[in-house]
Amino acid sequence: MSIQDIFQSELQVVNIGLTSFKEALDDVGAKAVQVEWKPPIEVSLEARQTIYANRKRIEAANEKVMDIILKGMPQLVGMGTARDVIPGMKDNLILHAGPPITWDRMCGPMRGAIMGALIYEGRADTSEAAAELAASGDIEFAPCHEHATVGPMAGIVSASMPVFILENTAFGNEAYCTMNEGLGKVLRYGAYSEEVIKRLKWMEEVMYPVLQGAIAAVGPIDLKNLIAQALHMGDEVHNRNRAATSLLYRQLAPAIIRSCDDKDNAADVLDFIQGNDHFFLNLSMPACKATLDAARDIKDSSVLVVMSRNGTDFGIQLAGTGNQWFTGPSDVPDALFFPGYTKEDANPDIGDSSITETNGLGGFAIAASPAIVQFVGGNAADAIRYTKEMYEISAAENTVYQIPYLNFRGTPTGIDLVNVIEKNILPFIDTGVAHREPGIGQVGAGVLRASLQPFIHAFEGLADCFR
Fold this sequence. Notes:
Blueprint: H1 3-8, E1 13-15, H2 19-27, E2 32-34, H3 45-53, H4 55-71, E3 74-81, H5 82-85, E4 93-96, H6 108-120, H7 127-135, E5 140-143, E6 162-168, E7 173-178, H8 194-218, E8 221-222, H9 223-232, H10 242-259, H11 263-274, H12 281-293, E9 304-310, E10 313-318, E11 326-329, E12 334-337, E13 350-351, H13 355-358, H14 370-375, H15 380-391, E14 394-403, E15 409-415, H16 417-423, E16 428-434, E17 442-449, H17 453-464
Parallel strand pairs: 1-2, 4-5
Antiparallel strand pairs: 3-6, 3-8, 6-7, 9-10, 9-13, 10-11, 12-17, 14-15, 16-17
Helix pairs in contact: 3-17, 6-7, 6-8, 8-10, 8-11, 9-10, 10-11, 16-17
């Protein structure tokens, strides 16, 4: 277009500043376009220069990481007891969600879940005795993520708990997760009443052997394919798992009937799964964990392999910085609360379940599941907008996980730290909400952005690797 053409065309405004400038133009009928732009997140000049000077090395490493992630093949291969199958597990060790934390800094729901686990293990008779034991130094605590494991909300895993065993058959690594208890007053939300312990014992003594036999009978279950189908059916496999649970049920039910000699036990297990739409969450999470763990220790990469919360701190890990945690305060979600509860009752965000977003599911795939946004007070347009925004900070698009509404475009996969900093867009997460006091349980569900500080610290940490 020539200069003359420009001067002869209709005048229009492109606004890259405050939206109020465009709104003023709209009020007087002037044509204007608002550019959605924010300045980069503030980091040290030295770190920024170092990262940009090594951008080609970072991009090359990220290509390797994304090739591994996209080729991942998570399969459910069996079940076992935590002490027998989880690497490094022992009787006095309790695994928890999020980055490392000590008892004195733990939030209410995590303390409640640990107290419940100690009662479940028979190491304490009362919540008071359990709290005293937990604070004594005789019990060790470690992040699930440091033992190839993940857990929703408090994420507590103790030695006697049954766990699913998943294998990433493309690369040979494994991941583990407990079985899902359902909603409401459950251990993962910090409840530890008699009914909670009774349910856990039933899961150990009845559901575990029934499922173990069925999985052995049916053979490895391809979870990647199952998740892909569930996305087409309205799940995002974080806060909505109805379709995925139903698909899993179809595979397991015949095997349960054939392999379980006690028909009452078989019926009880089938009833439990059928009545628990979140049952698949404890498989989608380790499926993502197994996929991402295979991409660890790729030097120079800025792609996240962990994004997790312990109810006090929010932590992330990068493929290029080994097992180093970068942390900051965890935030309280924007949520719809159950009757009788408000944001004042809510604990800051908690759980390993944001591993789903780290692998291109959950909030990153929320356009496939607008029902989730409606549940927390939004609409379908919000869901589309959230997912489209996540493409801006992702290193690739998934080759298997697809969103029907976006013409089967692959989900945004592989959070690139550099993109997060450059574009000032924090990852979007959907989540459950626990009461801040131990023993109460779930009080709502909501959405939030990942905490800012871990990403700033990680940017500085990645820059240090080049110095």
